[in-house]
Write a structure and sequence with these properties.
About 20% of the residues lie in helices and about 40% in strands. With about 150 residues, it is an alpha+beta fold. It has one domain: Alpha-Beta Complex (Nucleoside Triphosphate Pyrophosphohydrolase), CATH 3.90.79.
């Protein structure tokens, strides 16, 4: 039996890192526009989803984090590109910061913003998942890290 072209969504990870009512975001170029996003990125081959979230946060913000729980799993289709993303978003606590560490290509800076500041620039968010993840986090939505298993 033949199958049509195999469609595969992109598996991505993100962290919601809160400190004193402010959230760690990155200002980055995507599609030629300067946008805001959680520290986020793609899962690498032979990497756990949790390890990817920790790595991406460090690479994009120079902050080491500890994962505290899973906020949610989000399915989003980018209307313009047609790409589909499955995002595993984790709640994380900020640890050590290395201000001299270079940030990933495309990342302009890491910033700490309030929920109100993030909501005020909805048209500059990389996706609707950014504010949704923050809102789910603020609503107390947390699942144990053991929900995602590495076999």
């Amino acid at each position: 039996m033949t199958h049509p072209v195999c469609w595969k969504p992109s598996v991505t990870v993100a962290t919601v890192v809160e400190r004193q009512g402010r959230f760690l975001l990155v200002e980055e170029y995507a599609g030629g526009e300067l946008v805001y996003n959680q520290p986020a990125g793609h899962l690498d081959d032979n990497e756990t989803i949790a390890a990817a979230a920790i790595r991406e946060t460090l690479e994009e913000t120079a902050w080491e984090v500890t994962l505290d729980g899973l906020v949610g799993i989000y399915h989003w289709r980018h209307a313009a590109s047609g790409l589909t993303f499955i995002r595993f978003c984790f709640a994380a606590s900020a640890g050590r910061h290395d201000p001299d560490r270079p940030l990933d290509t495309g990342i302009q800076r890491a910033v700490w913003l309030s929920r109100a500041e993030v909501a005020a620039m909805q048209n500059r968010l990389r996706s609707p998942m950014v504010l949704r993840c923050i809102d789910d986090y603020l609503a107390g939505q947390r699942y144990p890290l053991s929900l995602v298993s590495w076999l």
